[in-house]
Amino acid sequence: MKIEEIKNPKFIKKLSSKELTTLSKDIREFLIDKISKTGGHLSSNLGIVELTIALHKVFDTPKDKIIFDVSHQSYVHKILTGRAKYFDTLRQFNGLSGFQKMSESPHDAYEAGHSSTSLSAALGLALGRDMNKEKNNVIAVIGDGSISNGLCYEALNQIGDLQTKLIIILNDNNMSISESVGALHNHLDKLRNKNNYKLAKNKTKKILSKFPKIYNVVRNIKQSIKKLYVKEGFIFEELGIDYYGPINGHDYNDLITYLTLAKKSNGPVLIHVITEKGKGYKFAENDKTGVWHGVSSFDKVTGKIISSNDSNKTSWSEIISDSIIRLMNEDIIVITPAMETGSKLTKFKNMYPKNFIDTGIAEEHALILANALSLEHKIPFVSIYSSFLQRGYDEIVHDIARMNSHVIIGIDRSGIVGEDGETHQGLFDITFLLPIPNIIISCPKDSIEATNLLKTAIQASSPFCIRYSRNKIEYKKGEIKKIPIGSWEQITKGKDATLITYGDFVNESLEIIEKLKQDNIEVELVNARFIKPIDTLYFNKIQKKNKPIFVYEESMKIGSLGSYLNTISNKNIITYGVEDTFVKQGSRKEILIHLHLDPESIYNNIKKELKR
Ligand SMILES: Cc1ncc(C[n+]2csc(CCOP(=O)(O)OP(=O)(O)O)c2C)c(N)n1
Fold this sequence. Notes:
Largest sheet: 7 strands, mixed
Strand order of the largest sheet: 8-7-9-10-12-11-17
CATH superfamily of the largest domain: Thiamin diphosphate (ThDP)-binding fold, Pyr/PP domains
CATH architecture of the largest domain: 3-Layer(aba) Sandwich
Number of helices: 24
Bound molecules: thiamine diphosphate
């Protein structure tokens, strides 16, 4: 069938098993074809094709509400709810979102991007339904990686207690982005092992055959099935949530039988569904490192990932992790909350396995773990994406900063992140970190400064953040030396005005300075490599010039360096930063132009201000 012509999921109700299988095949081909051009979350979506189709066969959206955790795996749902025709614009500026979006479709019951929110959201929607005396189903689909996050235990704790009717589908593909970690993962592993799985399947079939009118005797069946293969002490059952499984997530009979059973339940139910990440595309099926989890465009025949034309450049993540290797000592402990691949830490892990900790998706835990390690005289380096650091705010304030611990936080993906859009933009970290006492916030302009800041951080004694973006830059290596904490650097001299900036904007501002020079305007460019503490001596000198001061930042304007400088200065400092809005998806370049934060716009604005 023509996938682009699907308008809504109603047609699925009438499909036979054979037709469902054909539909899965067509959808997989469609996904591989489209994602090979746009990039996107390939593996998770290939793995969830049958499960999503079965969900739409058994349930009726939008009346029934399906919440996909993270929602990076909601592409099949998007296709079935009439959005296949927009897939050429996936994750692009003004295009189809890579996550569930309520503004895109009434079939999207919730929104996410960050993990492990689906169970709390499902409980909220289910309680609201009951208060409104409605009858719809609420279904949360969550992966084995995401269910390891602490937020889920807060939700499960209440779901099991309240006994509210809702369905949790545990989509277990034995992988997070890279391989799943942790004791819960080990526990699921036991349940997942083949013998147990086959045994369960055969016994279930036997029981179901004894109960032909299954829907009238659901409760009995449930009890009988449960007794057969649920291990005593299994966590979900102990919490009061009916557990079914594991079942084959690529088998329509199993899926439809159990989803129908769950639909009839009056309390909380969890169905443990085993799927294969990347199913149907051999390169993704064999992936153990996570490169096919979120992939850029690729050649679908050879599986070769198409590298951008900046292949002579290196990502900030790689520069930072390589710098750690260069500066390594036995006390340094690198901690990642499930982002080994994205943060380019695999080489470090292989070289220093004893100094590497993957906590799973557990940002809050990772930060307190780091804090306590520092009390044991270790030097923890927590590598964390800016937007996920939002999860760890209290841990930074209450633990790390208040105890003034020597914890280094590598804030990866700060600034505009591009195609992941609103939920992933790294635009809030400066605003939320600046008011915290004791904390040092730095942002290197290039690779040499990055290594030097890391050396400074390793030898410091306070919480030390190093902020870097998702961009790629030239990786230059130089002599490694400490940088005085709180020192700024003059990049160009200029008598007419001062432009203060940091990070990638330092080099990008050179273009602005050059253009202004051609207009006979000489602007001093300052690299504020420390956003906190600031270089008070240098800043006083700048103020004494009595010339306009501009601050240019890839950060929210409220609470930015510029807004802070304004509070301590009697000069009118003009800040160019992100206005009070959530920033959508698109390439960094498109977004900067859209926000009037590209070098051309800044040049025009400064010129206008100076000509007043
Ligand atoms: C709070 C948070 N931390 C990290 C991530 C990055 N992330 C996106 S998907 C993912 C793995 C999810 O694994 P799982 O739930 O098993 O789903 P799968 O992709 O395997 O289907 C991670 C770590 C995130 N989205 N949110």
